[in-house]
Amino acid sequence: MVNNEQRPMLRFLVTLTICSVVGLQTWMVLFNNFAVEVAALDGKQVGAIQSVREIPGFLALLAIYVMLLLQEHKIAALSIILLGAGTAATGFFPTFFGLLTTTLLMSFGFHYYETMNQSLVLQYFNRSTSPLILGRLRSLSAAAAILTSGLILCLGKLIDYRWIYLILGSTVTAAGLWALFQNPTHANIVPQHKKMIFRRRYALYYFLTFMAGARRQIFIAFSVFLLVKIFSFSVQEVILLFIVNNIINYFLNPVLGKAIVRYGERKILTIEYTGLIFVFLAYGFTESKLIVMCMYILDHVLFNFSMAIKTYFQKIGDPQDIAPSMAVGFTINHIAAVVIPVLGGLIWMVDYRIPFVIGAMMSGISLIAVQKISLPAKQSP
Fold first, then answer.
1. Domains in the chain: ranges and CATH
2. Predicted structure pTM score
3. HEC string for 330-351
4. pLDDT tens for residues 332-349?
C-alpha cells in the first residue's frame, strides 16, 4: 500500500495525528468540570469559550499565507507544539480570560494541524491509497481517544486537573518538537500554490464541505443535548456511548477507506446522506431511548463517510491546488459553526424537533447534490 518513499510521511502523520487526539481529548474531557469546579465559570462564560474554540477553524484559510514562510510539515509540527502548550497551560490559568487564551492557543494548534494533515495525505498518497490512509488515521484517532479517556480516569484518582493537563499536554508538545526536526518529504511532490484558490469547477466540493460542517454542528450542538435533556441520559451512559462509538470506528474506518476505493465517492456519500435523513428524523420523533441511542451511534459512524469529500477533491482538483483548497475548505466547513449553534438554540426553544427536521432537510439536499459527482476517467496510480 505504501512504498519506501512514502513511509517517512506516513510515520510522521501517524505520530502527530495520535498526539493531536491526545491533546484535544484531554482538553475536552476535563474542560467542563475544570471550568465549573476550579475556575467557577457560569454557563454564559463557558458558552463564550466554546464559541471562541471554533474561531481558528474559521480562520484556517490564513494557513495559506503561513505556507509562504514555512513548509507544510513544519507548520504541522508547530501546530502540535501549540496544541500541546495550550493544553499543558490550561490548568494554570483557571480564570475566564486565562481559559480564553489557552483555548485559542490549543484550538489554533488543532485546526491548523488538521488542515496540514488533510493536505499532506492528498499530496503524498495517490488516489487509490489516500482513502486507505485517511481510514487508518481515523481508526488510530478512535483508539487514541479511548486510551486517553482511560488514562485521564486513572490519573484523576491520583492527581488534580492541573497536573493531568500538564503531563499530557507536555507529552504532546514533546512529540511536536520531535516532528519539528524531521523531514518526511520527498522531491516528487507537485509545488503548491501559495494563494487562495477558488475555481468554478470546485463548486460542488465547496458546497458539500459547507453542508458537512452544518451537519457536524447539528450533531455536536444538539445530539448529546437531546440525550441528556429529553431522554435523561446519565454521564455514565454518555461516556459508554462514546466508548462504543470509538470502538466501532476503530474497526470500521479502514473498511470505509477500502469501500471508497472500490465503490467511489458518489455511492459512499449517497449512503451517508440517506442514512442521515433517517437519523435526524428519528432524533426528532422517536420516544424510545434505545432507538435514539442507536441513532446516536449511527450518526457518529456516518460522520466518517465525509472523508469521501476530500478524496473526491483529490480526483477533480489540480495537484498544485491541494494545499490552498484544503485550507479554504476547512474555513468553509466551519462557517456553520458560527451560525448553527446560536440559531439552532433559539429554534430549540420553540420545539426541540425543529433543528433535527432541518438537519433531515439539509441531508436531503446533500443527497441530491452528491448525485452530481462526476469523476474524470481513472488514472494510473
1. 1-189 (1.20.1250.20), 190-375 (1.20.1250.20)
2. 0.84
3. HHHHHHHHHHHHHHHHHHHHHC
4. 888 876 677 667 777 877
